[in-house]
């Protein structure tokens, strides 16, 4: 009987993999991973400058094209900003708004409807509302009350009121404490922000703004009383009401549109 094959250390070698051959990363990917790790771990902070390309090339022992490709990888991930004509690159952390734009584009490509996005939001946020009601800290209530006071003062200003209303929704999902769910929820919120503005900023919908503020006040009362189940049910009903108001305007089968203000192709005339 043949003895099992051994590795360089004398231990039994791992069995051969069946399927695709192992792909070794390119050197540019390895360099990008080292820099990426320093950014994620906070060694390179937001706004800080990377060493110049010649310094990086010497540090990693790579050629100019390899270093350029590594920086391109990081730039495509929105982790750095390469300043053309300057001596180096600057760390620029990705924002939720930028991530939402990418998510929204994927939804557009999938012909996803507004109804579909709202259904996901309604499924995601009520459990966070319940979690907030169970676990809030005094500072959380201060932030929520401060937002409501700001919204009350901004009732005559439709545009700024709409922005503050979105901030309240953001507070609800972030103060609940689950970062993963909060980020997913925020991405959905950013995707529908443009569509919500159609309803919230229309002068004919003053009563909708007053009603939304009253609902936020009632929700906060339930949170303060730690009535988590009622808070979740109320927040679900609030989202459903918001969805109805929006979808009456846009239509439930309207595909998510991030570029509604961009002229159509037929309206653009390029010189021949």
Question: Could you describe the 3D structure shown?
Answer:
The chain is an all-alpha fold. It has two domains: 27-91, Winged helix-like DNA-binding domain superfamily/Winged helix DNA-binding domain (Arc Repressor Mutant, subunit A); 97-250, GntR ligand-binding domain-like (Four Helix Bundle (Hemerythrin (Met), subunit A), Up-down Bundle). Helices cover 62% and strands 2% of the residues. It has ten helices and two strands; from the N terminus they run H-H-H-E-E-H-H-H-H-H-H-H. It has a two-stranded antiparallel sheet with strand order 1-2. A hairpin with a 6-residue loop joins strand 1 and strand 2 (89-91). Mean pLDDT is 81; it is low at 3-11 and 261-272.
Blueprint (SSEs and pairs):
Blueprint lengths: L26 H14 L12 H8 L3 H13 L3 E3 L6 E3 L4 H14 L4 H22 L2 H16 L4 H18 L3 H22 L5 H19 L3 H23 L22
**Uncertain segments:** 3-11, 261-272
CATH third-level topology of the largest domain: Four Helix Bundle (Hemerythrin (Met), subunit A)
- Structural class category: mainly alpha
Could you state the order of secondary-structure elements as H and E?
Answer: HHHEEHHHHHHH
Shape: elongated
Kindly state the number of beta strands.
2
Question: How many helices in DSSP terms?
Answer: 10
- The CATH architecture of the largest domain is Up-down Bundle
The major sheet is characterized as: 2 strands, antiparallel
What proportion of the residues form beta strands (DSSP E)? under 5%
If you average the pLDDT, what whole number results?
A: 81
Helical proportion, percent range: 55-70%
**Strand order within the widest sheet?**
1-2
């Amino acid at each position: 009987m043949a003895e099992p094959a051994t590795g360089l250390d004398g231990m039994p070698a791992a069995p051969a993999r069946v399927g695709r051959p192992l792909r070794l990363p390119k050197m540019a990917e390895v360099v990008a991973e080292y820099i990426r790790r320093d950014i994620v771990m906070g060694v390179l902070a937001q706004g800080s400058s990377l060493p110049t390309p010649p310094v990086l090339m010497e540090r990693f022992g790579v050629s100019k094209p390899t270093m350029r490709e590594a920086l391109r990888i990081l730039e495509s991930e929105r982790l750095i900003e390469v300043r053309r004509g300057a001596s180096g690159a600057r760390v620029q952390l990705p924002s939720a708004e930028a991530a939402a734009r990418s998510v929204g584009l994927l939804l557009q490509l999938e012909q996803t409807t507004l109804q579909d996005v709202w259904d996901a939001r309604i499924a995601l946020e009520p459990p966070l509302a319940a979690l907030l009601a169970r676990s809030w800290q005094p500072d959380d209530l201060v932030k929520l009350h401060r937002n409501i006071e700001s919204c009350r003062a901004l009732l005559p200003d439709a545009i700024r009121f709409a922005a503050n209303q979105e901030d309240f929704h953001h507070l609800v999902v972030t103060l609940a404490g689950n970062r993963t769910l909060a980020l997913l929820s925020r991405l959905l919120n950013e995707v529908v922000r443009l569509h919500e503005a159609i309803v919230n900023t229309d002068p004919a919908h003053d009563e909708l703004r007053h009603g939304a503020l009253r609902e936020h006040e009632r929700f906060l009362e339930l949170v303060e009383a730690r009535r988590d189940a009622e808070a979740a049910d109320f927040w679900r009903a609030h989202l459903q009401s918001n969805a109805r108001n929006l979808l009456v305007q846009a239509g439930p089968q309207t595909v998510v549109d991030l570029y509604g203000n961009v002229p159509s192709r037929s309206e653009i005339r390029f010189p021949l």
